[in-house]
Every structure is written in structure tokens, then in C-alpha cells.
């Protein structure tokens, strides 16, 4: 994009380009613009797309969890009459392993994955070959004919046992991460009490309704390789895949179409995506790959599996002097695109909302013979919040304080924001931008009806029911920059097009951007069409991940819309209305005089028409009612919240039923509270999965046992409790004009912590829950052990 | 998850169905009705039938009727048929109670009662009903018809007495006498999941004593069965909480539970006691 002369806002006007931001649509529960095709069967997912003469690719996957490849026999596959090609690692030996995002962390390169295994396989499901056919059924028939002869090696299935050998001379301990500030040794020495917890989160992940898929072809009219089905980070991944297969980024474009859920896992660069693009290039035919659910559960990123040992040094009043934390991160078989971001974030966010004078943390990032792990909605924070909150619950017990009081004593005070911590997360210095946690706690207790809830629980317990309440306090992060851009254009009918580099993964990007643009420009939000997820209409884009699209792309959209507004007013002032620009505004799509309310205005479509290319408009600056806008930010935003769960435990079956769930969340500024609530409720559902149901099991040979949705248990509507959401805007971010902080992960971060605490409370055994998910069998065994020990 | 290739043979009558089965059974032919177990296995390529004999077009298989003191359930009667009482007595009411624990609503619209019996999954609700109530399975083949009692039908995990060329044409459940009380309970991880344990109980109150007591457990062993040790504790005795508790404990002690990586034998054993107790608690009259 290029800067537009007279319409461009100056850098210094970044936060006050509009001194008093208009809020006609921002903050309103307007209906979603993206829904009509989705609810009328007109979705355009990659599975719906086809090109003439396309090939179907099917992946052959390792059945060994750890083995040296002796040979791969493709002869039977090649002899099949429908076979159009078979590749093994030797056929793609020129393709480097898939790289990870830029990071200052060193030493992970040897742990990257090749697109097809070479001499070793390290997990069941690892791609060892691909076959191509004209029909997906035939492709699957042919794939079944490829066999691998391997020399099985011992498997490593846990990260907290001693490391082994990843490759000759290379340890399965890929990395030891450290973060420190303050004097933790003194804190531990001077502590009145040191409280320790040892807790684990099970292996689970995001499971989008739409499986992964890709459709690639060369459009010879433009000499461009197109790939469809790529959400999340189309621009960055286009660049990366182009580099891997030896094309220039400009000769390749990604298009996302509709995406059936992302959650951090769908839309990353996987071996299959690269193979699809490479095959389209080599065969010079369209190539389509859509995985099935078994493959999705075997090969799409897993996440979350971590053990935390956390020691808190407390003074006599129960105030933290320091936290000393270790974690063991089960990375699975390879390091994928995220590098070490998950343990890095877990370590960086573990101390959460609390004032912690000293902190020492070490993370052992270890490879195992399981599916590679990476980010899943609230990466690192679901785990670390659970670990930290288990510590606070344990401290409450040991100090004889209520679980709320111990937290109150340790929350970062409102007046301490912005609150810096002398460490980095993802190579960014930590500065919590704004907050009033104690204020949110007060509002939460009122909204829940805390005293009545406790009285109800006590009454039910007196009747023998095992009911309990638990809370999880969390500090989120969002809006990670540094820069995003957008382009806004008004056509001659007054309709507005916003071109963004965001990705729509179901969260409502189109609606939110339309609301922001509509208010900045002065039009109806339904007249705004938002383009996203295409690399061919915008040179740069930040995508949608880590709760950033609304902050970053929203910021850029607002800047671009303000630039268009200014351009329209300046042009109108000079050529269309006898009035200085200060006297003009755009209201409901009309340029009007502020001093003459009621006088008919000039529709902005007419302004756009007047700005058509002509000597006058060239002389004015540049033709067209269009402008770009950039938003940049130095730091992250830090929204925060409190989850509260009411659960009932069945002592006979060990089953936990969540009766009620409450989420209080300070979002800074909710562009569309309805969409935020939708994000939160969906997040709660996934959090319940990780807390009570979802776990990828392996047997002792590394054979995955959770490869269908009958074995990998996601909560359904029947398991979902009613969720109440309290949204507050008490701590807007100072980092952007609207005060936005991000919404994508608020629903999930504290669920594990709150459920664990609630179960402790229900069964009356402090610190009983040390492992998620709390399955009925585990809880029943725990209750029996406790009963036996109390005899 | 795309099935291997197969030939599809629609049958229009029972005679045609058994003739097709006689022809194709030796070549990996299978009968398909609701397909709610077979089709997923084919999609996962765990099953590779070369021929499917489709009996959905056989009208006589679609009927459920009362005949000679028995409820006769045809081969294509869907689970959903039991969402309402198919007969006015205690059996009809029990089946309504049980059917809601079978999978999910869409599956119940398609899956069949007889298909569940032929599939003989250890966690099948209908198999437990058949085992406890003493169903008779009517097997038809080109060779003729034979009746197989429940006691002989189940022969291990997903294994039955049905021969390769036979199809399960109907299941006959004895009607329960008026005054019979029956209850069912199952525990599963989520609504609609396969049960980790289930129990079905029935009895009549004869003055102060329980008569014709039946207690069965499913989803625990390779096949569902009645548990004589538990029944004996109640037969001829009054219905008291202590007696029910003792029977539940006896059932729990008597079973030899299956064990897998998800579920220990100990946990299943505990659940059997709970399931029996709750089945009694939920028994309707």
C-alpha cells in the first residue's frame, strides 16, 4: 500500500484522529453480517470447492510411534490403475522442513518436521507417503496399498520422565526455558509459609467442526498458484509455503473462503498443506486434499499437556513474596510453526493477576512420540491459570483464609497500572496496560448473588448433596501487534468496501469491522462489505489469532475509514459545498453541514462519483474515494476476568455436573457485546472439555486411542450448563482509541481452574484435584482413596 | 473415511433377501438395515463387505405387533418406534424408558432394534432387554426359519448364534404381566455415549414379596446377562432399601468386568452396583 497524500493521518494523531469517537454501531448488539450464507446452506468451505481435472491427495500415515524406516513399498499402489502418483520422503527431499515463526529462542531447528518422513517416524499418524488419484475413494484404496517396513524403537510418552534420544546425539529435551525477576531465593528463605502444588493438564486440543483441507491450482491466466481453505494467517503462511516450495510469494495467493472454526489449530502450516501446493505445482493440475476426522485427531496439532510444580512464598498475611515454578511441556514428536510459544506463554502468564515481587520459572520442553503439540485457544494460559489458581486455593486453605480473601490480598492494585514485569513474553516486555481486578471481583460477587449462592450450597450440602463453588481468576493477553493495515473504498452508490488482512474463522470479523468502519466514516453498518483472508487484494495482513483481529485490524480499519472520511470532507469542502471542512460531517452516509441541521446533504456515493479520475481529482491529490490506514501498537492488551463454577458431584459414579457457570470479563471496549458473549460461551464449552472430558489417550506402545469423536469426548449441548456473562469496560486499553482488548480467549482461560476448585469444594477435600480432565473414573478413585485413608 | 467399494443389492421381500444372502454371504456379503454400526465401520475401513443386502425395502420387516403374548419386532423397526408405547402394558412403558438412552435422536431414526441384537455390542441397551426378558430371535435363511432363545444367542463380544446366511427377521419379546414393575439405568460419559455400565430390573409385587425378580447388567461383560446371585437375594422377599442394597452389592461382586485403557474393572464393578440400585429406584409400575 502507498500513503495517500492529503488524506493521510499523521502519526501523532494515532489515538485521537477523532477526538470523540462516534458510537452509533460500536457497542451495539447488531446482528451478524456473515450469517446468511452460513445458515442457508450456502457456505463455501474448501470441501465445497472443485476445479476441473483435479487430483485428490491422500496421506499414508505411520503406524509406528517410533521407528527407523527400513523401506516403504509403493509398488502395489503404483500398479493400481487409478494411481496418478505416489511420493515418499525421497521424492520431496528438496523441500526443507517446515519452519517456525521468528523467535529469539535458539536450538529448535533440529526438531522440525519434514513434509514426508525421511529415515525416521516419531508418531503414529506422521505422513510417510502421499498418493494421488482422480477420485477420493480410489485415492484411499491406493493409500491402503502403501506399506512401511520399520525397525521399532522404544517410545517416550511423557515429558516428566528422563529425556531420551530424539536422533543420534540429540536429546528429546529440546529446550530449557527460563524467566526470572526479583530475588526468589530470599523470598523462599523469608517466607512465613511456602505452599506447593504439583498439577497436570491432559493432552487435548481444539477440534474444529471443519477438518483441515486445501485445494491448490495454478491459474495460468495470471501464472499464480492459488491455494484455497487457508485461514488464520493467510499472508504469513503464503510467504512461508512459497519459500518452502521454491516460488516467489507474489506468484502465489491464499484464499480462506468460509472456515469452520480455527481455535489455533486449523490454519497452521502442516505437511499436508505444503504437499498440496507442491503437488499442484508439479502435476500442473488442481490438487485437493481434505482430511477425515480420524486424521484430524491424529495429525492436527494437539496441545495443553503440561505438568506444573509451583511453589508460592507467602508472608504472614498471605501475601506473595515470590513464585518458583517448574513446568514440563510435552511437545510431541516435532516442533511445529509455533516453536516454543506455548511454554513461553505459560511461563510468562503464570503469575496472572497477582503482584508477585519475585519470580523464577524453568520450563523443560521435551519431545515425545505423540502428535506434535502447539497452540490451542488460550495457549499456555489455560494451563498456567489452572496451576496458579490451584496454588492460590492451596494457600487459602493453609492460611485459613477464604479463597476470595487470599486473592484480594494479592491482586495488582488498580493504581499500579500500567504494571511492568521485568520479563518478556514472546520477546515482548510485559506491561499490563490497564486494570481494576478488585473492582471486577466486587461486581462479580454482586452479579452472581454470592451470599445467596453460598447459602444455597450450604443448605444443599446439609441434605447430603456434594455441591461446590470454585473460581478461576485470569489475566489474558490480546492485541499483539505490531502493525496491521486496511483499505476502505466508497463506491458511487455509497456502499463501502473494507479490505482487511484479517481472517474470519467464525468469530464475526465482518460484522465487527463493519461496525468500526461505519462509525468512523458515518454510514450504516449494513452498507459496509468486509473482505478478509485473501492475499491478492492486500499486500499485508495479520490474520486472526491470539485475540488480535479486533484490536489490530479493527484499529487499521478505523484509521482507513477516518482517512476516507477526511478525504471526502476535504474534497467536498473544496469542490461540492461552500463550507470550510471544519463545518462538515458525514452522517448516515451524507455529507452535511454541522451548522445547518436538517438541510439535505450530499450522499457520499456522489462524492465518490465526483472523485472519479479527472484532472481535478488528480490535482486534488489522487482520484477515488478510497484510503488506506495503518495501526501500530507497541504492546499487548491485557483483558482479565473471573470464572465461577457451581458443580455437583455424584459420589457413586464420580461424575461432575456443572450446574452453572459465570464469566466476568473486562474487555476494555466491546464492539459487539453479543459477539463477545458468543465467543465466551463457546470458549467455556471448550474449557469444560479440557476440564472434564477431552483427552488424547495413548497405549503403552504409543498407539493413539482417541481417534474418533466417540473416543475423544467433546462436551455436547447436554453437558453445557447455562452460562452467565458479565461484560465490563472499566479498564479500556490506553493502546488504542476505542480501548479494545480482545475477546477470543476469555471464555476458556479460567475454566480448568474454576472447575477444579469447585470439585474440591463439593467433595470437601482441599487440593484434591491435581489433574485435568477430572474424569468420573479418576474422581471415583480419588473419593475411594480418601474414604479409605479417613477410616 | 471413505468406504471401500461394494455392490448394493436391494431386496423387496424377505424371500428375496434370504436368497441374496445365500448367494453373497460366502463372498463377504452383509445385511444392511439402519447401518448405524456397519456404515461407520466401513467408513473407518474396519469392515470391507463386498456385497450389501439392503432390506430396507422389505415391507413386512417394518412392522411391530403383538402376537400370542409376545411383542414381535421386525428386522427394520427403528429405535424411534419405541419413543411411544408400542403396546399398552409394562413392556411398552419399559421400552420407552430404555430407548431414550440409545445414542442420539438422529441415530434412533435410522438404527434398528434387530440390528442392535445382530450387532451384539456389549453396551447395547436392546441386547440387555433381550437377555433379561428372555427374547426369542427368529433367524431366516434360504434353508428355513429357526428360533434362537436369548440364552443361546449371545456368544461373546459382537458375536451371535446367527449363521452367515441367516438374517435376523424378527425378535419376540414376551409381554410383561400386568403389575410388573421394571426399571433401567445406565451411566455414560455424555448423553448418548455407549454406557460404561447399565442395569435392567423387573419384578412383581405379590403381597409383601417380590416375585419373578430379574436383574441384568450390560456394558460390563462380553455380553449382557441376568445375575442370579442378586436375583436370589430378592426373590420371595419384601422390597426394602436394605434388600435392594444387598442385591446391588451382590451384582457388583458377581460380574467379571471388561477392562480397557479408559475404564478399569474396579470402576465398572462399582458402577454395576450403582446401576442396579438406580434401576430399582427408577422402576415404574
What does this molecule look like?
The complex is a heterodimer of chains A (791) and B (285). With 791 residues, chain A is α+β, with helices and mostly antiparallel strands. Chain A folds into three domains: 11-30 and 481-632, Aldehyde oxidase/xanthine dehydrogenase, molybdopterin binding domain (Aldehyde Oxidoreductase, domain 4, 2-Layer Sandwich), CATH 3.30.365; 46-153 and 212-290, Aldehyde oxidase/xanthine dehydrogenase, a/b hammerhead (Aldehyde Oxidoreductase, domain 3); 306-479 and 635-790, 2-Layer Sandwich (Aldehyde Oxidoreductase, domain 4), CATH 3.30.365.10. Chain A has 19 helices and 31 strands. In chain A, strand 28 (640-649) and strand 29 form a beta hairpin. In chain A, helix 8 (341-349) packs parallel to helix 9 (381-399), helix 9 packs parallel to helix 18 and helix 17 (673-693) crosses helix 18. Chain A is globular, with a radius of gyration of 28 Å. The model of chain A is unreliable at 1-17 (pLDDT under 50). Helix content of chain B is 32%, strand content 25%. Chain B has helices at 14-24, 38-43, 90-99, 105-110, 113-119, 125-133, 150-153, 228-234, 241-254, 265-281; strands spanning 7-10, 29-32, 51-54, 64-67, 70-74, 136-141, 144-149, 167-174, 180-187, 197-206, 209-218, 225-226. In chain B, helix 8 (228-234) packs antiparallel against helix 9 (241-254). In chain B, a hairpin with a 6-residue loop joins strand 11 (209-218) and strand 12. The chains are: A alpha+beta (791), B alpha+beta (285). At the A-B interface, helix 3 and helix 19 of A face helix 10 of B.
